Structure to design on (728 residues):
């Protein structure tokens, strides 16, 4: 890490700590250092998904968890949310690479600067709640500030000795065992959590059979040491360790049109060997201090993630190597040979190239944060210094495919000098200052964020990595830049539960693949209403891109053959505007039952403002819609808590139509889709409750994506879960 960056952050905090702070007004509780929203009333649009919301459907898929948050766009993939594609206000969704993803306030993308794609994502079954920040408040999180940030909060240390055991079974071999237990005393708190979740999957591997699901294991340990909470100077030390492993029989290969129509749950036989194996561990150490009206927090974290996604990369067609997207396109055009290869009816053997997408990631950082209550000013200063890297050592194995049969795998040579033998390293520092000015009914927030980063790549001459390929320009600086952003937001209390909110902030997205960083001006204006029983929020937003870019990923839709993985492409000016509406209400029915209703609606208009051609976006004409962003989305949830111990919830999710490419050519349309879920729970006693959940009740087979590799992906079929929760 850069010494001068450390000094900048430390000096800034020392200067601010020199303010004359009172010894009064100290709190009497432990410091909550994992949230970005907490109990604060942010000036911009911010939403939370509570633990109660997640518990209603024992949510395992973050896509569905975020459905009740307006302004979130998603692109499902395998039906379980293992590697989500999330967009905030129209940012490109591929692998959530343009969203700041955090767990307990710590960046969780495997390498947030060097390789931001979220190939690691927390096992969502263990997540306690979620925070979503949009608008000017995004400046305090970064580095991806155009759309915003998502912070997943893990199970907290309980205030008293308590815990939970959850056992679940269901369709497609679904089995889940989840427990957590912990306690707090005056000066010590602890939590231990474990989760095992597995399923056989729902797709059918043609000619071959076998599983298409996953097996995940998680463990989490938290410790807290603290001084007496009512002391004038309060100290707290937090330790967190998390470890997870996954084995999932997942593929990048979707379906051609005719095969989708004949069997939406089909999976091609030549993908039988495809499998993802990964492991992740995290250590977080946090020291917190509170004295008078000032709080200080220092956090050090390390994330390590390794994965080997062994998956079909190329298919030979008449003896010539083709990308999967090309073979699917040819099959869609009626090419008999392409169809026979996909369906395993080919009588001449064709080679299948499977690639070990073997990568190791690491990231570590120091985060410093100070908060100072200075009367009508509430000042927050933050600094983050990070290093992260992505190490690729990728090689091929080969098999022959004929008449629905795969031959034994043959291991190919390890890579020499190539894009498959490289290390990309990033160093970055960020500093922000945020001032909340309370003027009574009007609260104004001013924020400035400064980012400084350098990304360097090394490619080696041989597998043993004895030397870097200097005659080809390596080590090569992919990006060396800095950016300073400004934001302003306000809320105005009009009385009687009504308030107005608005704001403007500059946003940017760093890039390492050759294109210029993404930049955009963002504004929002809205109104809120809240009383004891209901709340309503309506917000208009506009994002004006001075420069949008896309990154070539194997996971992308509409990939143009020849697009090199990791390269980035500028798209120039673009405009995304929209309207977000959310409503929550609860009331007591005439029969004495407690009722609830939630609604979230998003209207989005996303267009390119320039005409251009690229190997990523294809041929784009000004005015074309940005792909994978539906115009309208609607989520409804109705619930009832009956007096006899039963409760029930119904959820309807609707997503409007879109296309997987800007030109919206043949076989790229994604029609509108709807899913309907039901949940019923029965409280047997104070400690035990049973639940029964049905997702996709009407077994919809709608297309949800044409990606990766242009193949059709469908909704997870109708599935049920039966479970028991016991409070310890």
């Amino acid at each position: 890490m850069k010494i001068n960056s450390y000094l900048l952050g430390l000096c800034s905090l020392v200067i601010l700590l020199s303010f004359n702070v009172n010894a009064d007004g100290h709190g009497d509780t432990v410091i909550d250092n994992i949230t970005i929203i907490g109990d604060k009333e942010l000036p911009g649009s911010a939403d939370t998904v509570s633990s109660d919301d997640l518990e209603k459907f024992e949510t395992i898929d973050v896509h569905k968890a975020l459905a009740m948050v307006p302004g979130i766009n998603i692109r499902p993939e395998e039906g379980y949310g293992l590697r989500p594609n999330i967009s905030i206000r129209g940012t490109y969704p591929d692998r959530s690479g343009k969203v700041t993803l955090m767990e307990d306030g710590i960046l969780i993308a495997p390498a947030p600067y060097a390789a931001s794609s979220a190939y690691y994502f927390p096992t969502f079954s263990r997540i306690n709640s979620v925070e979503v920040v949009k608008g000017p408040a995004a400046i305090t999180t970064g580095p991806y500030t155009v759309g915003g940030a998502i912070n997943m909060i893990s199970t907290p240390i309980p205030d008293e000795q308590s815990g939970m055991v959850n056992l679940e079974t269901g369709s497609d071999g679904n089995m889940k065992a989840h427990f957590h237990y912990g306690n707090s005393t005056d000066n010590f708190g602890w939590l231990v959590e474990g989760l095992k979740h597995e399923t056989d999957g729902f797709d059918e591997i043609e000619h071959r059979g076998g599983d298409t699901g996953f097996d995940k294991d998680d463990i989490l340990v938290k410790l807290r040491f603290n001084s007496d909470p009512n002391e004038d100077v309060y100290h707290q030390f937090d330790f967190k360790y998390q470890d997870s492993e996954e084995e999932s029989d997942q593929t990048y290969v979707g379906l051609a049109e005719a095969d989708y129509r004949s069997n939406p749950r089909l999976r091609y036989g030549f993908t039988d060997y495809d499998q993802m194996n990964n492991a992740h561990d995290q250590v977080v150490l946090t020291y917190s201090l509170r004295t008078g009206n000032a709080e200080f927090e220092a956090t050090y974290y390390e994330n390590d993630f390794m994965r080997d996604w062994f998956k079909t990369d190329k298919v030979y067609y008449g003896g010539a190597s083709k990308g999967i997207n090309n073979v699917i396109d040819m099959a869609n055009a009626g090419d008999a040979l392409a169809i026979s290869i996909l369906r395993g009816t080919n009588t001449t053997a064709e080679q299948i190239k499977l690639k070990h997408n073997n990568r190791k990631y690491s990231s570590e950082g120091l985060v410093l944060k100070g908060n100072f209550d200075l009367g009508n000013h509430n000042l927050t200063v933050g600094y983050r210094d990070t290093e992260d890297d992505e190490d690729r050592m990728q090689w091929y194995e080969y098999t022959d495919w004929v008449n629905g049969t795969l031959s034994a795998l043959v291991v190919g040579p390890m890579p020499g000098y190539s894009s498959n033998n490289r290390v990309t390293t990033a160093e970055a520092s960020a500093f922000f200052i945020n001032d909340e000015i309370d003027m009574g009914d009007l609260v104004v927030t001013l924020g400035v964020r400064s980012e400084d980063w350098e990304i360097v790549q090394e490619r080696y001459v041989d597998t043993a990595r004895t030397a870097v390929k200097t005659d080809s320009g390596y080590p090569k600086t992919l990006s060396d830049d800095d950016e300073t952003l400004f934001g302003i937001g306000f809320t105005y209390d009009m009385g009687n539960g009504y308030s107005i909110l608005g704001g403007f902030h500059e946003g940017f997205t760093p890039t390492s693949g050759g294109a210029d960083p993404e930049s955009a001006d963002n504004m929002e204006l809205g109104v809120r209403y809240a009383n004891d029983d209901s709340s309503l929020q309506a917000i208009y937003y506009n994002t004006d891109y001075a420069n949008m870019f896309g990154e070539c990923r194997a996971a992308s839709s509409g990939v143009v053959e020849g697009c090199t993985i990791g390269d980035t492409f500028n798209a120039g000016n673009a405009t995304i505007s929209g309207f977000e509406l959310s409503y929550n209400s609860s009331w007591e029915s005439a029969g004495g039952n407690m009722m609830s209703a939630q609604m979230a609606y998003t209207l989005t208009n996303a267009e390119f403002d320039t005409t251009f051609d690229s190997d990523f976006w294809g041929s784009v004409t000004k005015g074309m819609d940005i792909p994978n962003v539906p115009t309208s989305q609607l989520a409804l949830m109705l619930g009832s808590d009956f007096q006899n111990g039963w409760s029930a919830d119904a959820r309807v999710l609707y997503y409007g139509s879109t296309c997987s490419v800007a030109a919206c050519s043949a076989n790229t349309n994604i029609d509108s889709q709807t899913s309907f879920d039901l949940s019923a729970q029965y409280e047997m006693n104070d400690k035990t409750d049973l639940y029964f959940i049905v997702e996709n009740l009407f077994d919809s087979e709608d297309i949800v994506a044409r990606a990766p590799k242009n193949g059709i992906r469908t909704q997870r079929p109708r599935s049920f879960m039966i479970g028991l929760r016991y409070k310890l």
